[in-house]
Amino acid sequence: MAKSNPFLIHAIGKTISKLKKGAPYQWGHMGACNCGNLAQEITHVSKGEIHRYAMQRFGNWSEQLNDYCPSSGLPMDLMISRLLESGLNLDDLVHLEKLSDPKILAELPVNKRREIRKNRKEDLILYLEVWLKQLEKKWVDQQAPVKIPQSIKTNKSEVLS
Fold it and tell me: How many CB atoms lie within 10 A of CB 11?
C-alpha cells in the first residue's frame, strides 16, 4: 500500500473532486483513465501530454508499469518516477488501473465489490474515496502522540489557586 502522506492524500482528494465535477474520463485514454486522472493531479501534466508520452512506447498503464525503467529518460518513465516519489508504488498503480487492490475492495459493500468495473467513472470515484479514507487513517495512526514533559505538567491545585 502507498506511503501515506499529506501530498498524496491531497492529490487523491483533488482527483475525486475533479471527477465529480466532470473531469474527462475515458478508460482507454492513457491521460484520462484511472491512473491518468491521478497522474494529472500529481504531476501537473495534461491528459494530452500523458497520452502522448505513453504512445512513445507500447501498452496500457499496466504494461508501461511493467516496463518501467527509472533511468531510461523516457517521459513516461520520468512521470512514473514522480508518481512513485509521491508515495505510490508500482502495485498501487496497477491496482488503480484495474480497481483491484484487495485491501480497498474489502471495504466496499459486498454487492458493490462484485459489480465494480475498471472502466466506470462512478466506480473509480468510489475506489478512490475508500483508498483516501484508508490513507487518511494510516496518516493519523502514524503520527506520534504528543508527550508533555513532566516538568511542564502542572498540579491542578496550583492552576486553580
Answer: 22
